[in-house]
Write a structure and sequence with these properties.
alpha+beta; four-stranded antiparallel sheet; 3 helices
Length: 90
């Protein structure tokens, strides 16, 4: 399993989850866990995904999700699980 952490942050608007999840489904990326909150009009979503069945390289997935984020007015970032864990280690 190749886990990737995807975060989405920005002003809340209709269709953010739909756009991101549609892209992931179209590229065989399985969502293992998802958390989302909206605070005072600001949207935040964090997903743990499995990219092992996707034919796309991590760099392409990341770039395309970033582009989708720009189109819908949010910031989308992808990190390999190992890097995410190292960055958030206490």
């Amino acid at each position: 399993m190749k886990k990737t952490i995807i975060t989405v942050v920005g002003k809340d608007t209709v269709g953010i989850i739909a756009k991101v999840c549609t892209y992931l489904a179209d590229n065989n990326v399985n969502i293992l866990d998802i958390s989302q909150t909206i605070v005072d009009g600001f949207f935040h979503m964090m997903m743990v995904t499995d990219t092992s069945q996707s034919s796309r390289e991590f760099s392409l997935l990341s770039a395309e999700l970033k582009e989708i984020g720009e189109q819908i007015g949010v910031v989308i970032m992808c990190q390999h699980e190992e890097i995410f864990d190292m960055m958030h280690r206490i």
